[in-house]
Known about the structure:
This protein has one domain (about 5-165): Thiol Ester Dehydrase, Chain A, CATH 3.10.129.
Amino acid sequence: MLQTPETSHRIRFQDCDMLGHLNNARYLDYFLNAREEHTIQHYALNLGQLARELGAGWVITKHHLAYLRPAHHAEVVRIRTQLIHFDNSNLVVEMQMLSEDGQRLKAVLWSEMAFVKVPGGTRTEHSDALMDLLEQLDVEDVSYDPDGFDERVRRLRKQLKRERNEHE
């Protein structure tokens, strides 16, 4: 099972500010839409349908977002998403926006989510089947520390720089 899917997306005019940069608030839309696409395409997991069937779903409790380089109007970007942490009722998805060639990191997002009952919004635990799926999707070589977002961004930038230098 593919743990780190990626897709390409063109930055749309309507999503940009007057300088032609992707508006800061719109990064979330691009990231979350990419993750939804990834869960459907790669895991056959429709989150809305899952919520209706289980009477529970994930809600975002916190975002950590680093804006590193602007994404420009009409530019094609690559978005990678991956599960980097989970427990009985929470998960953390890391999302990276890169240049089209995958060489330059533009933004990194960590979305922390809680699994809650619908309706009501009270926290509940993942089923055994969901825990099994999350175990398969968890990217173990990313060590998650709730306070380690800035360090993770620094390591990603360093890794990409090293990879660029190896290709030159």
